[in-house]
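User: Sequence in, structure out. Go.
Assistant: Echoing your sequence, followed by the structure tokens.
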Amino acid sequence: MIILPEIFLSLSVLALLLVGPFIRKKGYVIIGYLVLLVLIISQFFIFKNIFQFEPIFNGFFVIDSFGSFMKCLLLIGTTVVIYMYLTVNKDNSINQIEFPILILISLIGMMFMVSSNDILSLFLSIELQSLALYVLVAFSKEEENSSEAGVKYFVIGSISTCIFLFGASLIYGFFGTTNFTEISEALGQTREISLFLIIGVVFVLVSLSLKVSAAPFHMWTPDVYQGSPTIITAFLSVVPKVAVFAVIIRFLVFPFGEINVDWGRIIIILSISSMVVGSFGALFQKDLKRLFAYSTINHVGFMLIGLVPGSEDGIIAISIYLILYLIMNTGVFLVILNLRIDERNVTSIKDLSGYSNSNFFMAVCMAIFVFSMAGIPPLSGFLGKLIILNVAIDNNLFYLAIIGVVSSVIAAFYYLRIVKLMFFDKTNDELDKDVNIESKVLLSVLSFLNISILFFPEFFLDLSASITFSLFAVN
């Protein structure tokens, strides 16, 4: 019997909403730990069904290895963020019982997104995760920037919704159905592809590009990352990206795999523009959160290279990159959450000056993460970039590989700048030395993973190959 983790999470949210108001003292802590317990239990439900394939709810959703794998990443990323919220966060304005519950609601929407087998179910799932994220971004009442970021995110999200619906209506008008399986079967029997169908797919892809921060649809990302509470920036930079990439892969490769030549050109444009904007945009940033917003855009562009061929090798490469990206990015934001002066969180790049003098351990961990993001061997980021570039070369996409290498070299400048500030510059305002044991343990684990993963590439290759098989078996 299949037990859906989404149903379990939904029932848990209802239970937590009922229990929450009755907890008076530090209710957010109790609710937060209950959310952690719920997330851990949900992993067992996913492991139970990880090698199954079954359409459910009249074909609106599908359970398969690809979806189960992506859900595991979503749960792991959310678990780490909730753990950081409970042990590291010092922002009292977000210490409310609603905060971890809203993160859980957003996660439910993302998990439904990953399993969606119909345009309608996909749209509803996207809206569920988006509405929760709009509230989370604007959650801090004490920060004007948070409210501003929330409004910007809401406006861009509303535009994205309109674009998605317009594209979906064109697709429905051509096929007379919104089900991915039926669309795939109909497309296989279609001799002539209508221009309106291509336009419909492009509009849906543009909407998803807005969600994943692919240039030139990245305009909201730096402002929202900077204005959001840092813990939410950490969440936004990792978990929704995994969900939207899973959706893009499922939407393009399964129902529209037959027209790979058409949407592949759009992906090439998105990939190149994201790498260029991400690498050059970060060069002039003075705020760490804005810098890593552009870093995210650059990484998104790099991952899109693997999607261009529409092949199994490309999807395997993206899957591995997503694992490594989760490890690198959560580590970076864990360090940023611990950057404080007089118990006040700071995010200016200059505040890192001489950080190694006040906290050598944290500086070393940050150096490991940024070196990994730059793709410097023998760290895990090198493995991710190498596999993506290998896919590009195998598919004769030499120009994409060259642009990817050049953008990585440019990006290495601002990553190395952070290391230079921490180890070679003089201290300005000395950062607080007090770092709790929970942060040190988590940083140690993430740093160890960044160093050791390169020595076990076969495990990740085999894992990613096994989960992508279900996607291409259907196709």
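User: And one key feature?
Assistant: The CA atoms of residues 35 and 100 lie 7 Å apart.
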